[in-house]
Structures are given as structure tokens and as C-alpha cells.
Amino acid sequence: MSRALLQILLPAAAGAFVIAVWYGIHFYLDEEMRFLLPTPAAVIEALQINRDSLARAAWSTTKGATLGFSLAVVVSSFLALVLSTSPLVRTSLYPYLMALQMTPLPILAPICVIWVGAGLKSVTLLTFVIAFFPLVVNTTQGLISTDRNLVELFRLYRATRWQQLLVLRVPAAFPYFFTGLRIAATLSPIGAVVAEMNAGSSAGDGGGLGFQAVIYSSQAKYPALFATAAVTCVLGFILNAAVLYLAWLALRHWHDSYERTDR
Amino acid sequence: MSVVSIVEFREVAKRFGDGPFVLDRFSFTAHRGDFIALIGPSGCGKSTALRLIAGLSPVTSGSLTVEGVPPGADAANLAFVFQEPTLLPWLNVAKNVEIPQQLRGIPAAERAVTRQRVLDLVRLGEKSAAYPRQLSGGQKMRVSIARALALAPKLLLLDEPFGALDEMTREHLNEELLTIREQEAWTAFFVTHSVAEAVFLANRVLIMAANPGRIHTEVTVDLPYPRTAETRLSRAYHEIVTDVSRILRSVQPTAVGGDPNRASR
């Protein structure tokens, strides 16, 4: 059997198995307990019934996640450049970056709400906090891990600091940056949803999937809750795929992780 | 070839911090057109000597001049070929070769002309669009040499450039290097562990001793250029290889054998 076919068939078979087990558990449960695990069919039905509100929520979450993610990319790149200049700068600033990362989102959320109000601004800011750390750490590591021989070569050719940065250090940091970007792309939708649960707002923007999940949960609309989970998953997949594609574009010619076996 | 000195070491000593002397009382004059091979046991300061000439590291005492000025002051006329190809993996061959000129702000049109010339010199004109990972070890080293030649240096410093390559490729590149030199006429310092390579390439072989690093003996190789694969079969060549090997063995008794076909590594 060809590899390509197997790559489609195997996940499909695994999916069919999971659905079978899912139905098995659903019907194994006593009838009054079956609400704990709605059937896939019920989830799809809920998806259709709540199509409009879920679409609106998904769009809102997308905005929060991508805004926070983009802000994290910009700020972390700039900060990584600063951090890469000297070990002293890193020693001074790393503990505080760590502290920001260590503070759980549900605690930061109310603080954020006090500052900028509930809604999209808070969600963006909180997503930024979540996505920021892996980006800054990886990019900084990349900027300070340039091959010593190459640095020496640039010294030999009397490259200016700017030339060394732009022609050598920044491109050499790309693989590290994309590692951070992939982690951040996974964390961003999750961060946005958690932020919406804690700092979302029903008024206008900021009433994303997290906010919607809180509502469905309080109304005991369990199939709709499962449908919300599915939509969140899809969002995460799309953002990840976009980042993987970007990484492929940037690294395919030279990085070992994209080495073709048929060369 | 007029006898003009291009590199002059006078009683040069080098140590790193409070460490032992890596080089001590190192005195030596290279003349324009010389091909100088530096050979000796590990830790004899061969590579350090190159780095001093390049201005990558300062001398501790004594004086060193390159073209009459302190090392590093005349960077434009000097090129370095490292042990590794040190190519930028994200740039294709053409852009890698253009790096020295790019850093010097030379316009693209002019860069392209030079690039084509030096890539043709190393017979890689067809590979300009390839990325380093698509090349063999020998090809990468040739790109590295092409890049070094891009600024038309007067002085070429090579730090064991072919050390990681197999014997066949190495011999081939040795011949190629001499062919290029006929067209380019640079002065060369070449660090190696291989007696065969040193004798084949150089007109002067400096045998160095360690602890502290110093010049033990200079052997003049008076085999006429151009040297070709045939040169390796000549009796004169073998005699010099045997001589150098013998001296090298006296410098470090266990390190070196006399068989020119087996690189002493």
C-alpha cells in the first residue's frame, strides 16, 4: 500500500474507532447520565443550531488570538534583539520575564480588566502574555547561538555591527524563532479562550468562544459546549498550519529539518 | 618574482591571558609569492600564527607586520580559509561567494562578474544556484576558497582547509589550488597535518615544535612549479617528504610516519 494512502487511512481508521468507543460509552451510560457525553450527531446538531453565535464567537476569538499573537511576535523580536546584546542584560531581565510567565492567566485577567476593561483589549493583552515567553526565549537563544566560525568570518571582513546582525545573526536565528512561533501559535488560541472566560465581554467584541462556553455551561447546553470545543480546535489547527507553512517557506532550502531524503 | 617581504614576524610571542606561551621567539619573513606550509604537532601554534597575521588575535610581544602595517590594518588584501567551509547555509552558492563584496558595499553588477570568475576558477560555475547542503564536502570547500578569492587578496591564509576531506579529494584540490595560484599570484600560508600536502604545495615548509610553539626547521622545497599529479611520483618529491617526515618525527617522536600516501593526522 502506498505511503500517501496509509497516511489518510490510518488516521481515518483511528477516528472511526474513537467515534465507535464514544457511542459505546454514550449508550453504556444510564439514560439520565447520557448528557455527560453527547453523541457526535448531537454535537453536529448543536453546531448547526448555534451556527450564528458560534461563528460570531469564533471570529471574535480569532481577532483576540491573532492580535495577541502578532503583538507578541513584534515585541518579542525587539526584546530578543536587546537581550542578545549582552549576558548582563539577560541576567537583569530574565527573572522578570519568568515572573510574567509564572503568573497564571486567571489571576492576571482581573488585573487586566481593571486596566483596560473587559473585552477584546484584555483578551489581546492576555494572549500576548501567553505567547510572548516562548518567542522571546527562543529568538534570543537563536541570536546568541550564531556559529562562531561565521562570526569570525564576518569580523575578518570588517563587517559592521549592523551587517553582522542583519546578514548573519538574524537569519541564523530563524530556526529558533520558528520553534518559538510554533509554540506560540499553539498557545495563542488557548490563551485567548481562557482570557475570554475570565475577561471576556458580551457587549460587542470580546465575547468569543471562551465567553460562549461559560454561557453554554451555565445553561447546561452540553452538546453546544462540545461544539464550542470543536470550533476552538479548528482555530488552533488553522493558526498552526499557517505558521508551519511560513516556517517551510523560510527554511526549506537550508535547514536540516526540511532535508529531503531523495537528494 | 622580486624578493619583497609581505609578512614579517620579529621575536613574536603569544600567550592567552596568563597561560603558557603558545608562540615564543617566533621570527620569520615571508616574501611575495611564497607558498608557506606550517606543519607540526598539535599545540605548536600553527593556527595561532595564522590568526595573528589575520589580526583576529593580537600579539603579546614582539612585532608583526603585514605589508608593512600592523595585522588587521590591511584587511582588504587578506583572505582566510577556515578548517570548516563556514558557508551561510541559508544562502545559495552565488550569494555565499558574494558575501565579502557585499559587506564591502560593492554594487551587485560588479559582484556578479567577480562571482562568476571565482566560481569558474574552482570549477563550480554551474552550481551557483545550489544551497550548501546540496554540495559534497569537497565542493563546499571549493566554494569557501572561491569566496576567499572574491576580493582578489594578496595574502591567502588557509587553516587546514582540506583536513576533513578524503585523500583523493584532497590531492585533487591541492592540484587545483596550485592551478588557481598560477592565475592569481597570491602569497599563501597553509596550515596542515599532512607532510605530503605540505611538500606538494609549498616552496617553504616550516616545521614547528610545541611547548612553546616555535619554528624548528625550515625546509626549502625546490621542486619547480607548475606541480602536477606527476610531481608526486618523482624521486625528488619523495626525498623531501622523507626528510620532512624525519624532522617532524624528531620534533614529536611518536606522532608522524614517513609514508607520503598516509596523511599524518
Explain this structure.
The complex is a heterodimer of chains A (263) and B (265). The mean pLDDT of chain A is 91. Chain A has helices at 3-28, 40-49, 51-83, 87-102, 105-116, 120-144, 148-156, 161-199, 209-218, 222-251. Chain A is an all-alpha fold. The two termini of chain A are 24 Å apart. Helix content of chain A is 80%, strand content 0%. Chain B is of the alpha/beta class. Helix content of chain B is 34%, strand content 23%. Chain B has helices at residues 46-54, 93-103, 108-121, 137-149, 167-184, 195-201, 235-251; strands spanning 5-15, 21-31, 35-39, 61-66, 78-81, 155-159, 187-191, 204-209, 214-220. In chain B, strands 5-6-7-3-8-9 form a 6-stranded mixed sheet, sandwiched between helices. A 3-stranded antiparallel sheet of chain B has the order 2-1-4, covered by helices on one side. In chain B, helix 2 (93-103) crosses helix 3 (108-121), helix 2 (93-103) packs parallel to helix 4 (137-149) and helix 3 (108-121) packs across helix 4. Chain B starts with a strand and ends in a 14-residue tail after the last helix. Classes of the chains: A mainly alpha (263), B alpha/beta (265). Chains A and B meet through helix 7 and helix 8 of A and helix 2 of B.
